[in-house]
Amino acid sequence: MTLAMWGAVLCLVVGAGLVMSWIFARRPTLDARLAPYARPVDGRTWVDHTSGSRFVVTRLVAPVVRDAGKMLERWGSSSADVSARLRRAGSGLSVEQFRAQQVAWGAAGLACGVAPATLLRVARGAPLLVLLILVVIAAIVGALGRDAALTRSAQVRTNRIVAELPTIADLLALAVAAGEGARAALERVATTTSGALSEELRLALADARAGEPLTRALSDMAARTGAQPLRRFVDGIVAAIDLGTPLAAVLRAQAHDARVASREQLMEQGGKREIAMLVPVVFLILPVTIVFAIYPGLIAIRLTG
């Protein structure tokens, strides 16, 4: 098959999928049916952004994306795990939006796999089954790449929170030693600092202002971030508030422990990097050094022989 025929087949498949999704469109949900008659709290009229000719393509592709997202949830990570990682990463995406991005990355991987597969088929006459496997693997790699990117983002933000914890703990200890209460100290530190941990403190204080107890809001913050040093720090604050112990001494001790833990983590990372640095030394620099040391002797032996 020529390149034009492959392009025509691909267009026919995509067009057939869109037509079938339009014919077998899902019934609207209860929220969608009540949306035109609902009015938000602020008094503005409800606007259905999915209706109209401008969003026809979106409405046609939405069922396909929804089904693909359910398939990814069935075969990949669960919605609970994705939701937890989204919270740890500080992302405002919902699970459905993340699944849609996974589908988009999978489609991009599919397109990246179709191009070399077509070239191999036209130039070398590669077997069709092998090319189909290549295309499927490219699509799977694209979907898994978005999941790996989310995991990496969550880990980076968690490490940033752990790095900011000693400074935040020292500022809290200073504020409490100056005579402020626990909530006032948290408010002052959260409003005067910036960073990932400050954002989490602002969210916890917003929950506390909404009626949730401060200790529970802090515990939820620690569980949401997934950082063990922060969990120990919050446990110490909660215990000091519940038992009535001097909070300033507890915060100073927690700050010292956080700095010690940060120093130990830095030493551990340095040990891992030291091992990783041995790889180019052993496999690149050492062989070149041996070649430079032995080659002149080999040339001298050949000349004298």
Please outline what is shown here.
It is built from eleven helices and no strands. It is an all-alpha fold.
Set down the secondary structure blueprint:
Layout: H1 3-23, H2 30-34, H3 56-75, H4 79-89, H5 95-123, H6 128-177, H7 182-192, H8 196-209, H9 214-225, H10 228-243, H11 247-304
Largest sheet: none
Number of helices: 11
Q: Helix and strand succession? A: HHHHHHHHHHH
Helix coverage percent: over 70%
Number of strands: 0
Instruction: Please tell me what the overall shape is.
Output: flat
Measure the end-to-end span: 62 Å
Poorly predicted segments:
21-25, 40-58
Radius of gyration: 29 Å
Query: Mean of residue pLDDT?
Result: 76
Give the structural class: mainly alpha
Fold and architecture overview:
With 305 residues, this protein is mostly helical. 81% of the residues lie in helices and 0% in strands. It is built from 11 helices and no strands. Helix 1 (3-23) crosses helix 3 (56-75) and helix 4 packs across helix 6. Residues 21-25 and 40-58 have low confidence and may be disordered.
